[in-house]
Inverse folding.
Protein backbone atom coordinates (compact mmCIF):
# COMPACT_ATOMS: atom_id res chain seq x y z
CA UNK A 1 0.00 0.00 0.00
CA UNK A 2 2.73 2.41 1.01
CA UNK A 3 4.64 1.43 -2.12
CA UNK A 4 1.85 2.62 -4.39
CA UNK A 5 1.26 5.90 -2.55
CA UNK A 6 3.95 7.95 -4.37
CA UNK A 7 2.50 6.83 -7.71
CA UNK A 8 -0.99 7.81 -6.55
CA UNK A 9 0.26 11.24 -5.51
CA UNK A 10 2.09 11.76 -8.82
CA UNK A 11 -0.92 10.48 -10.76
CA UNK A 12 -3.26 12.83 -8.95
CA UNK A 13 -0.85 15.72 -9.52
CA UNK A 14 -0.71 14.98 -13.26
CA UNK A 15 -4.51 14.70 -13.46
CA UNK A 16 -4.93 17.98 -11.55
CA UNK A 17 -2.45 19.67 -13.88
CA UNK A 18 -4.34 18.58 -16.99
CA UNK A 19 -7.71 19.46 -15.43
CA UNK A 20 -6.35 22.92 -14.63
CA UNK A 21 -4.97 23.24 -18.16
CA UNK A 22 -8.40 22.32 -19.54
CA UNK A 23 -10.09 24.95 -17.35
CA UNK A 24 -7.55 27.53 -18.51
CA UNK A 25 -8.28 26.59 -22.14
CA UNK A 26 -11.99 27.14 -21.54
CA UNK A 27 -11.22 30.45 -19.83
CA UNK A 28 -9.13 31.60 -22.80
CA UNK A 29 -11.86 30.61 -25.26
CA UNK A 30 -14.50 32.51 -23.25
CA UNK A 31 -12.22 35.57 -23.14
CA UNK A 32 -11.65 35.54 -26.91
CA UNK A 33 -15.36 35.09 -27.61
CA UNK A 34 -16.12 38.08 -25.32
CA UNK A 35 -13.98 40.32 -27.55
CA UNK A 36 -16.98 40.85 -29.82
CA UNK A 37 -18.94 42.41 -26.92
CA UNK A 38 -17.29 45.80 -27.42
CA UNK A 39 -20.33 47.65 -25.99
CA UNK A 40 -19.52 46.18 -22.59
CA UNK A 41 -15.72 46.33 -22.48
CA UNK A 42 -15.19 49.46 -24.59
CA UNK A 43 -16.18 52.04 -21.94
CA UNK A 44 -14.09 50.25 -19.28
CA UNK A 45 -10.84 50.08 -21.25
CA UNK A 46 -9.55 53.59 -20.50
CA UNK A 47 -10.05 53.13 -16.75
CA UNK A 48 -8.11 49.86 -16.81
CA UNK A 49 -5.36 51.39 -18.96
CA UNK A 50 -4.93 54.04 -16.28
CA UNK A 51 -5.08 51.60 -13.35
CA UNK A 52 -2.84 48.92 -14.81
CA UNK A 53 -0.61 51.15 -16.91
CA UNK A 54 -0.26 54.73 -15.77
CA UNK A 55 -0.42 53.79 -12.08
CA UNK A 56 2.34 51.20 -12.62
CA UNK A 57 4.77 53.69 -14.17
CA UNK A 58 6.41 54.81 -10.90
CA UNK A 59 7.54 51.31 -9.87
CA UNK A 60 8.78 50.52 -13.39
CA UNK A 61 10.71 53.79 -13.64
CA UNK A 62 12.17 53.39 -10.15
CA UNK A 63 13.49 49.95 -11.12
CA UNK A 64 14.92 51.12 -14.41
CA UNK A 65 16.80 54.09 -12.91
CA UNK A 66 18.74 51.88 -10.51
CA UNK A 67 19.23 49.15 -13.11
CA UNK A 68 20.84 51.69 -15.45
CA UNK A 69 23.20 52.90 -12.70
CA UNK A 70 24.27 49.38 -11.76
CA UNK A 71 24.75 48.33 -15.39
CA UNK A 72 27.05 51.28 -16.09
CA UNK A 73 29.14 50.69 -12.98
CA UNK A 74 29.41 46.92 -13.50
CA UNK A 75 30.32 47.35 -17.16
CA UNK A 76 33.07 49.78 -16.24
CA UNK A 77 34.33 47.40 -13.52
CA UNK A 78 34.47 44.54 -16.05
CA UNK A 79 35.89 46.47 -19.00
CA UNK A 80 38.56 48.66 -17.34
CA UNK A 81 42.00 47.88 -18.71
CA UNK A 82 40.75 45.37 -21.27
CA UNK A 83 37.99 46.89 -23.40
CA UNK A 84 37.49 50.54 -24.43
CA UNK A 85 35.22 52.28 -21.94
CA UNK A 86 32.74 53.48 -24.58
CA UNK A 87 31.47 49.89 -24.63
CA UNK A 88 29.73 50.81 -21.37
CA UNK A 89 27.15 52.58 -23.56
CA UNK A 90 26.79 49.45 -25.67
CA UNK A 91 26.23 47.21 -22.69
CA UNK A 92 23.80 49.56 -20.94
CA UNK A 93 21.72 50.07 -24.11
CA UNK A 94 21.66 46.47 -25.29
CA UNK A 95 21.00 45.00 -21.86
CA UNK A 96 18.27 47.46 -20.97
CA UNK A 97 16.42 47.13 -24.29
CA UNK A 98 16.85 43.41 -24.91
CA UNK A 99 16.61 41.99 -21.42
CA UNK A 100 16.41 43.94 -18.21
CA UNK A 101 13.89 46.58 -19.28
CA UNK A 102 11.22 44.07 -20.32
CA UNK A 103 12.01 41.28 -17.83
CA UNK A 104 12.50 43.33 -14.67
CA UNK A 105 9.45 45.44 -15.49
CA UNK A 106 7.48 42.27 -16.24
CA UNK A 107 8.45 40.69 -12.93
CA UNK A 108 7.62 43.85 -11.02
CA UNK A 109 4.26 44.17 -12.75
CA UNK A 110 3.43 40.51 -12.13
CA UNK A 111 3.61 41.48 -8.46
CA UNK A 112 1.76 44.74 -8.77
CA UNK A 113 -0.75 44.14 -11.55
CA UNK A 114 -1.13 40.34 -11.53
CA UNK A 115 -1.63 40.23 -7.77
CA UNK A 116 -4.03 43.16 -7.90
CA UNK A 117 -6.20 41.55 -10.59
CA UNK A 118 -6.26 38.17 -8.82
CA UNK A 119 -7.13 39.73 -5.45
CA UNK A 120 -9.82 41.96 -6.91
CA UNK A 121 -11.52 39.31 -9.04
CA UNK A 122 -11.02 36.66 -6.33
CA UNK A 123 -12.81 38.87 -3.81
CA UNK A 124 -15.58 39.47 -6.34
CA UNK A 125 -15.87 35.71 -6.85
CA UNK A 126 -16.10 34.76 -3.17
CA UNK A 127 -18.50 37.63 -2.37
CA UNK A 128 -20.76 36.56 -5.28
CA UNK A 129 -20.23 39.83 -7.16
CA UNK A 130 -19.34 37.90 -10.32
CA UNK A 131 -22.58 35.89 -9.95
CA UNK A 132 -24.40 39.21 -9.44
CA UNK A 133 -22.95 40.49 -12.73
CA UNK A 134 -24.22 37.34 -14.45
CA UNK A 135 -27.72 37.74 -13.00
CA UNK A 136 -27.77 41.33 -14.31
CA UNK A 137 -27.13 39.84 -17.78
CA UNK A 138 -23.51 40.99 -18.05
CA UNK A 139 -20.92 38.63 -19.48
CA UNK A 140 -18.22 38.75 -16.75
CA UNK A 141 -15.54 38.00 -19.33
CA UNK A 142 -16.52 41.11 -21.30
CA UNK A 143 -16.88 43.20 -18.19
CA UNK A 144 -13.91 42.06 -16.12
CA UNK A 145 -11.37 40.10 -18.15
CA UNK A 146 -11.25 41.65 -21.63
CA UNK A 147 -10.62 45.27 -20.51
CA UNK A 148 -7.82 44.15 -18.18
CA UNK A 149 -6.12 41.96 -20.78
CA UNK A 150 -6.36 44.61 -23.50
CA UNK A 151 -5.08 47.27 -21.10
CA UNK A 152 -2.08 45.02 -20.34
CA UNK A 153 -1.41 44.44 -24.03
CA UNK A 154 -1.52 48.17 -24.83
CA UNK A 155 0.08 49.69 -21.74
CA UNK A 156 2.92 47.32 -20.86
CA UNK A 157 4.92 48.08 -24.03
CA UNK A 158 4.46 51.81 -23.35
CA UNK A 159 5.73 51.36 -19.79
CA UNK A 160 8.74 49.43 -21.04
CA UNK A 161 9.58 52.11 -23.62
CA UNK A 162 9.76 54.62 -20.75
CA UNK A 163 11.67 52.16 -18.55
CA UNK A 164 14.24 51.47 -21.29
CA UNK A 165 14.71 55.16 -21.97
CA UNK A 166 15.10 56.05 -18.30
CA UNK A 167 17.45 53.12 -17.64
CA UNK A 168 19.72 54.21 -20.49
CA UNK A 169 19.52 57.83 -19.31
CA UNK A 170 20.50 56.88 -15.76
CA UNK A 171 23.37 54.78 -17.15
CA UNK A 172 24.52 57.78 -19.19
CA UNK A 173 24.36 60.15 -16.19
CA UNK A 174 26.32 57.62 -14.13
CA UNK A 175 28.91 57.23 -16.90
CA UNK A 176 29.60 60.94 -17.32
CA UNK A 177 29.62 61.67 -13.62
CA UNK A 178 31.35 58.65 -12.12
CA UNK A 179 33.27 56.90 -14.91
CA UNK A 180 35.24 59.67 -16.47
CA UNK A 181 33.40 59.22 -19.78
CA UNK A 182 32.07 61.89 -22.11
CA UNK A 183 28.54 61.98 -23.53
CA UNK A 184 30.01 61.44 -27.03
CA UNK A 185 31.77 58.26 -25.88
CA UNK A 186 28.63 56.91 -24.24
CA UNK A 187 26.51 57.61 -27.33
CA UNK A 188 29.18 56.10 -29.59
CA UNK A 189 28.96 52.88 -27.59
CA UNK A 190 25.18 53.03 -27.48
CA UNK A 191 24.94 53.27 -31.29
CA UNK A 192 27.71 50.78 -32.03
CA UNK A 193 25.65 47.57 -32.18
CA UNK A 194 22.19 49.13 -32.13
CA UNK A 195 19.71 47.77 -34.67
CA UNK A 196 16.04 48.88 -34.86
CA UNK A 197 15.01 45.25 -34.38
CA UNK A 198 16.17 45.55 -30.75
CA UNK A 199 13.18 47.76 -30.01
CA UNK A 200 10.81 45.43 -31.88
CA UNK A 201 12.19 42.46 -29.93
CA UNK A 202 11.77 44.32 -26.65
CA UNK A 203 8.17 45.26 -27.42
CA UNK A 204 7.19 41.77 -28.64
CA UNK A 205 8.49 40.32 -25.39
CA UNK A 206 6.73 42.94 -23.30
CA UNK A 207 3.41 42.50 -25.08
CA UNK A 208 3.54 38.77 -24.38
CA UNK A 209 4.37 39.50 -20.70
CA UNK A 210 1.42 41.89 -20.51
CA UNK A 211 -0.87 39.20 -21.84
CA UNK A 212 0.45 36.53 -19.47
CA UNK A 213 0.27 38.72 -16.36
CA UNK A 214 -3.30 39.91 -16.97
CA UNK A 215 -4.74 36.59 -18.19
CA UNK A 216 -3.13 34.55 -15.40
CA UNK A 217 -4.27 37.09 -12.77
CA UNK A 218 -7.80 37.04 -14.17
CA UNK A 219 -7.89 33.23 -14.33
CA UNK A 220 -6.68 32.85 -10.76
CA UNK A 221 -9.22 35.43 -9.58
CA UNK A 222 -12.10 33.80 -11.45
CA UNK A 223 -11.32 30.33 -10.11
CA UNK A 224 -10.91 31.43 -6.49
CA UNK A 225 -12.64 29.17 -3.98
CA UNK A 226 -13.28 29.67 -0.29
CA UNK A 227 -12.97 32.95 1.56
CA UNK A 228 -10.04 35.17 2.43
CA UNK A 229 -7.65 32.23 2.40
CA UNK A 230 -8.74 31.36 -1.14
CA UNK A 231 -8.10 34.93 -2.27
CA UNK A 232 -4.62 34.76 -0.71
CA UNK A 233 -3.86 31.49 -2.49
CA UNK A 234 -5.12 32.88 -5.82
CA UNK A 235 -3.02 36.03 -5.45
CA UNK A 236 0.15 34.10 -4.63
CA UNK A 237 -0.47 31.71 -7.51
CA UNK A 238 -1.01 34.59 -9.92
CA UNK A 239 2.39 36.08 -9.05
CA UNK A 240 4.29 32.78 -9.02
CA UNK A 241 2.77 31.41 -12.24
CA UNK A 242 3.07 34.66 -14.20
CA UNK A 243 6.69 35.19 -13.02
CA UNK A 244 7.59 31.68 -14.15
CA UNK A 245 5.86 32.16 -17.48
CA UNK A 246 7.70 35.46 -18.00
CA UNK A 247 11.03 33.67 -17.66
CA UNK A 248 9.89 30.84 -19.94
CA UNK A 249 8.65 33.34 -22.55
CA UNK A 250 11.91 35.29 -22.22
CA UNK A 251 13.85 32.18 -23.23
CA UNK A 252 11.27 31.30 -25.89
CA UNK A 253 11.56 34.66 -27.67
CA UNK A 254 15.37 34.51 -27.49
CA UNK A 255 15.32 31.12 -29.20
CA UNK A 256 12.72 32.12 -31.78
CA UNK A 257 13.72 35.69 -32.64
CA UNK A 258 17.47 36.02 -32.07
CA UNK B 1 -46.42 27.36 -14.00
CA UNK B 2 -43.92 30.17 -14.28
CA UNK B 3 -40.88 28.44 -12.72
CA UNK B 4 -40.67 24.67 -12.75
CA UNK B 5 -37.96 22.25 -11.72
CA UNK B 6 -38.57 18.55 -12.38
CA UNK B 7 -36.46 15.66 -11.08
CA UNK B 8 -33.29 17.76 -10.91
CA UNK B 9 -30.05 16.06 -9.89
CA UNK B 10 -26.85 17.94 -9.14
CA UNK B 11 -23.55 16.72 -7.73
CA UNK B 12 -20.34 18.53 -6.84
CA UNK B 13 -17.58 15.92 -6.89
CA UNK B 14 -18.80 13.11 -4.66
CA UNK B 15 -21.47 15.27 -2.98
CA UNK B 16 -24.91 14.55 -4.39
CA UNK B 17 -26.74 17.76 -3.47
CA UNK B 18 -30.01 17.64 -5.42
CA UNK B 19 -31.51 14.16 -5.74
CA UNK B 20 -34.65 14.33 -7.82
CA UNK B 21 -35.70 17.82 -6.74
CA UNK B 22 -39.05 19.01 -8.11
CA UNK B 23 -40.80 22.31 -7.41
CA UNK B 24 -43.28 24.58 -9.15
CA UNK B 25 -43.59 28.27 -8.36
CA UNK B 26 -47.03 29.55 -9.39
CA UNK B 27 -47.25 32.95 -11.05
CA UNK B 28 -47.94 35.81 -8.67
CA UNK B 29 -47.22 33.73 -5.57
CA UNK B 30 -44.43 33.92 -3.05
CA UNK B 31 -42.99 30.47 -2.37
CA UNK B 32 -40.55 29.85 0.46
CA UNK B 33 -38.00 27.05 0.14
CA UNK B 34 -36.82 26.08 3.59
CA UNK B 35 -34.30 23.53 4.75
CA UNK B 36 -31.18 22.90 6.78
CA UNK B 37 -27.96 24.76 6.05
CA UNK B 38 -26.09 23.07 3.21
CA UNK B 39 -29.23 21.32 1.95
CA UNK B 40 -28.87 22.85 -1.53
CA UNK B 41 -31.29 25.78 -1.37
CA UNK B 42 -28.92 28.32 -2.97
CA UNK B 43 -27.89 25.69 -5.53
CA UNK B 44 -31.56 25.46 -6.51
CA UNK B 45 -31.80 29.23 -7.07
CA UNK B 46 -28.66 29.22 -9.21
CA UNK B 47 -30.20 26.56 -11.46
CA UNK B 48 -33.22 28.78 -12.13
CA UNK B 49 -31.11 31.64 -13.56
CA UNK B 50 -28.68 29.31 -15.33
CA UNK B 51 -25.69 29.99 -13.09
CA UNK B 52 -25.56 26.22 -12.61
CA UNK B 53 -26.66 23.44 -14.95
CA UNK B 54 -28.35 20.31 -13.66
CA UNK B 55 -26.67 16.93 -14.17
CA UNK B 56 -30.13 15.67 -15.15
CA UNK B 57 -33.72 16.84 -14.92
CA UNK B 58 -35.59 19.86 -16.21
CA UNK B 59 -35.46 23.54 -15.27
CA UNK B 60 -38.13 25.60 -17.04
CA UNK B 61 -39.00 29.27 -16.82
CA UNK B 62 -41.99 30.52 -18.83
CA UNK B 63 -41.86 27.20 -20.71
CA UNK B 64 -38.24 27.79 -21.74
CA UNK B 65 -35.76 25.04 -20.94
CA UNK B 66 -33.07 27.07 -19.14
CA UNK B 67 -30.04 24.75 -19.65
CA UNK B 68 -30.59 24.62 -23.41
CA UNK B 69 -30.76 28.40 -23.93
CA UNK B 70 -27.98 30.13 -25.85
CA UNK B 71 -25.91 32.72 -23.94
CA UNK B 72 -27.89 35.58 -25.51
CA UNK B 73 -31.25 33.92 -24.72
CA UNK B 74 -30.06 33.26 -21.18
CA UNK B 75 -29.08 36.91 -20.66
CA UNK B 76 -32.47 37.96 -22.01
CA UNK B 77 -34.15 35.61 -19.56
CA UNK B 78 -32.02 36.86 -16.66
CA UNK B 79 -33.40 40.36 -17.11
CA UNK B 80 -36.75 38.86 -16.04
CA UNK B 81 -35.17 38.04 -12.68
CA UNK B 82 -34.13 40.14 -9.73
CA UNK B 83 -31.71 38.17 -7.60
CA UNK B 84 -31.22 39.21 -3.97
CA UNK B 85 -27.96 37.70 -2.75
CA UNK B 86 -27.38 36.46 0.78
CA UNK B 87 -24.67 39.04 1.45
CA UNK B 88 -26.10 41.56 -1.03
CA UNK B 89 -23.14 41.13 -3.46
CA UNK B 90 -23.10 44.86 -4.17
CA UNK B 91 -20.26 45.98 -6.43
CA UNK B 92 -18.02 47.55 -3.83
CA UNK B 93 -16.18 49.88 -6.20
CA UNK B 94 -19.45 51.55 -7.23
CA UNK B 95 -21.89 53.85 -5.45
CA UNK B 96 -25.35 52.55 -4.62
CA UNK B 97 -26.80 54.51 -7.55
CA UNK B 98 -24.26 52.97 -9.94
CA UNK B 99 -25.08 49.51 -8.56
CA UNK B 100 -28.78 50.07 -9.22
CA UNK B 101 -28.17 51.49 -12.68
CA UNK B 102 -26.33 48.36 -13.87
CA UNK B 103 -29.45 46.35 -14.71
CA UNK B 104 -31.21 49.34 -16.26
CA UNK B 105 -28.23 50.09 -18.50
CA UNK B 106 -28.12 46.47 -19.60
CA UNK B 107 -31.86 46.47 -20.26
CA UNK B 108 -31.40 49.47 -22.58
CA UNK B 109 -33.92 52.04 -23.73
CA UNK B 110 -33.54 54.26 -20.65
CA UNK B 111 -32.23 57.82 -20.79
CA UNK B 112 -29.86 59.06 -18.07
CA UNK B 113 -32.78 60.94 -16.48
CA UNK B 114 -35.00 57.84 -16.57
CA UNK B 115 -32.28 55.85 -14.86
CA UNK B 116 -31.80 58.51 -12.18
CA UNK B 117 -35.56 58.59 -11.50
CA UNK B 118 -35.86 54.79 -11.44
CA UNK B 119 -32.90 54.51 -9.06
CA UNK B 120 -34.48 57.05 -6.71
CA UNK B 121 -37.86 55.26 -6.88
CA UNK B 122 -36.28 51.89 -6.13
CA UNK B 123 -34.35 53.28 -3.17
CA UNK B 124 -37.53 54.88 -1.88
CA UNK B 125 -39.34 51.53 -2.12
CA UNK B 126 -36.74 49.96 0.21
CA UNK B 127 -36.65 53.06 2.41
CA UNK B 128 -33.12 54.09 1.49
CA UNK B 129 -33.99 57.50 0.05
CA UNK B 130 -30.94 59.69 -0.48
CA UNK B 131 -28.42 56.82 -0.36
CA UNK B 132 -27.50 57.21 -4.04
CA UNK B 133 -23.96 58.46 -3.50
CA UNK B 134 -22.98 56.15 -0.67
CA UNK B 135 -20.56 53.28 -1.15
CA UNK B 136 -21.59 49.77 -0.04
CA UNK B 137 -18.87 49.87 2.63
CA UNK B 138 -20.67 52.80 4.25
CA UNK B 139 -23.89 50.82 4.84
CA UNK B 140 -24.93 48.57 7.73
CA UNK B 141 -25.81 44.90 7.14
CA UNK B 142 -29.54 45.61 6.95
CA UNK B 143 -29.04 48.60 4.65
CA UNK B 144 -26.85 46.51 2.35
CA UNK B 145 -29.59 43.86 2.10
CA UNK B 146 -32.11 46.58 1.27
CA UNK B 147 -29.76 48.08 -1.32
CA UNK B 148 -29.35 44.58 -2.80
CA UNK B 149 -33.14 44.32 -3.01
CA UNK B 150 -33.34 47.79 -4.60
CA UNK B 151 -30.81 46.71 -7.25
CA UNK B 152 -32.87 43.58 -7.92
CA UNK B 153 -36.12 45.53 -8.43
CA UNK B 154 -34.64 48.56 -10.23
CA UNK B 155 -35.30 47.11 -13.68
CA UNK B 156 -38.77 45.85 -12.63
CA UNK B 157 -38.26 42.12 -13.11
CA UNK B 158 -41.07 39.61 -13.37
CA UNK B 159 -39.51 37.33 -10.76
CA UNK B 160 -37.64 37.94 -7.54
CA UNK B 161 -35.31 35.33 -6.08
CA UNK B 162 -34.25 35.92 -2.48
CA UNK B 163 -31.27 34.00 -1.09
CA UNK B 164 -31.49 34.07 2.71
CA UNK B 165 -32.75 37.66 2.82
CA UNK B 166 -32.90 37.80 6.64
CA UNK B 167 -29.88 35.74 7.68
CA UNK B 168 -27.58 37.50 10.12
CA UNK B 169 -30.03 40.34 10.81
CA UNK B 170 -31.48 41.45 14.13
CA UNK B 171 -35.22 40.72 14.73
CA UNK B 172 -36.35 44.26 13.95
CA UNK B 173 -34.42 44.47 10.67
CA UNK B 174 -35.69 40.97 9.82
CA UNK B 175 -39.26 42.24 10.17
CA UNK B 176 -38.40 45.26 7.99
CA UNK B 177 -37.09 42.94 5.25
CA UNK B 178 -40.14 40.65 5.56
CA UNK B 179 -42.43 43.64 5.13
CA UNK B 180 -40.43 44.72 2.08
CA UNK B 181 -40.87 41.27 0.52
CA UNK B 182 -44.64 41.60 1.01
CA UNK B 183 -44.51 45.17 -0.34
CA UNK B 184 -42.70 44.02 -3.50
CA UNK B 185 -45.44 41.48 -4.15
CA UNK B 186 -48.22 44.01 -3.53
CA UNK B 187 -46.73 46.99 -5.39
CA UNK B 188 -44.80 45.28 -8.19
CA UNK B 189 -46.85 42.07 -8.53
CA UNK B 190 -43.75 39.90 -8.73
CA UNK B 191 -43.53 36.13 -8.44
CA UNK B 192 -41.04 35.31 -5.71
CA UNK B 193 -39.02 32.39 -4.46
CA UNK B 194 -37.54 32.97 -1.02
CA UNK B 195 -34.75 30.75 0.29
CA UNK B 196 -34.66 30.82 4.07
CA UNK B 197 -34.22 28.75 7.19
CA UNK B 198 -36.05 31.36 9.25
CA UNK B 199 -39.52 29.82 9.74
CA UNK B 200 -41.00 33.02 11.19
CA UNK B 201 -40.08 34.83 7.98
CA UNK B 202 -41.32 31.97 5.83
CA UNK B 203 -44.75 31.99 7.54
CA UNK B 204 -44.97 35.76 7.23
CA UNK B 205 -44.03 36.26 3.58
CA UNK B 206 -45.06 33.15 1.68
CA UNK B 207 -48.19 31.74 0.07
CA UNK B 208 -46.62 28.29 -0.07
CA UNK B 209 -43.72 26.63 1.72
CA UNK B 210 -41.62 23.71 0.45
CA UNK B 211 -39.12 21.92 2.65
CA UNK B 212 -35.93 20.67 1.01
CA UNK B 213 -34.44 17.61 2.66
CA UNK B 214 -31.82 15.19 1.36
CA UNK B 215 -31.91 16.72 -2.10
CA UNK B 216 -35.66 16.68 -2.72
CA UNK B 217 -38.85 18.35 -1.53
CA UNK B 218 -39.96 16.48 1.56
CA UNK B 219 -43.23 18.35 2.04
CA UNK B 220 -45.00 21.28 0.41
CA UNK B 221 -48.08 23.23 1.41
CA UNK B 222 -49.55 26.46 2.70
CA UNK B 223 -47.92 27.95 5.80
CA UNK B 224 -50.74 26.46 7.92
CA UNK B 225 -50.30 23.01 6.39
CA UNK B 226 -46.56 23.10 7.10
CA UNK B 227 -47.15 24.37 10.63
CA UNK B 228 -49.52 21.42 11.25
CA UNK B 229 -47.39 18.82 9.46
CA UNK B 230 -47.19 15.39 11.06
CA UNK B 231 -43.86 14.59 9.40
CA UNK B 232 -41.32 14.38 12.24
CA UNK B 233 -38.49 15.90 10.20
CA UNK B 234 -40.66 18.83 9.10
CA UNK B 235 -41.94 19.32 12.64
CA UNK B 236 -38.45 19.03 14.06
CA UNK B 237 -37.23 21.68 11.62
CA UNK B 238 -40.05 24.19 12.04
CA UNK B 239 -40.12 23.80 15.82
CA UNK B 240 -36.33 23.71 16.11
CA UNK B 241 -36.27 20.26 17.80
CA UNK B 242 -33.27 18.11 16.78
CA UNK B 243 -34.66 15.04 18.61
CA UNK B 244 -37.72 15.03 16.34
CA UNK B 245 -35.51 15.21 13.27
CA UNK B 246 -33.41 12.32 14.61
CA UNK B 247 -36.56 10.29 15.21
CA UNK B 248 -37.76 11.11 11.71
CA UNK B 249 -34.56 9.92 10.05
CA UNK B 250 -34.96 6.44 11.68
CA UNK B 251 -31.27 5.70 11.70
CA UNK B 252 -30.69 7.40 8.39
CA UNK B 253 -28.07 10.03 7.77
CA UNK B 254 -28.11 12.70 10.44
CA UNK B 255 -28.43 16.14 9.01
CA UNK B 256 -27.82 18.29 12.06
Amino acid sequence: MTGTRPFAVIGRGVLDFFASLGRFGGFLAATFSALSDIRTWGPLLITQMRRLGVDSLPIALFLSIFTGIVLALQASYTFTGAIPLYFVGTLVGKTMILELGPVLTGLALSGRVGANIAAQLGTMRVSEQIDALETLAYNPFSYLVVPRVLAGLVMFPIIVIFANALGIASGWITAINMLDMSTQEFIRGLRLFYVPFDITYSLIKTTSFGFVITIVGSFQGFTTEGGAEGVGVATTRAVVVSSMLILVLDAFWAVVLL
Amino acid sequence: MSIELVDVHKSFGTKHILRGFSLSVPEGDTTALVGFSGAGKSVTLKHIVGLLEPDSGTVRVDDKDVPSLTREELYELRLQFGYVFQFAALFDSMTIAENLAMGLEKQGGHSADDIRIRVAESLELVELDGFEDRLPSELSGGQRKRAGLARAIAFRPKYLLYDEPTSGLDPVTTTVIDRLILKMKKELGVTSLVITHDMKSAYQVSDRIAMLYEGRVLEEGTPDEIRDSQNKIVRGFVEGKPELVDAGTEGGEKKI
Notes: The mean pLDDT of chain A is 94. Chain A touches chain B at residues 127-129, 131-139 (CB under 8 Å). The first helix of chain A runs from residue 5 to 34.
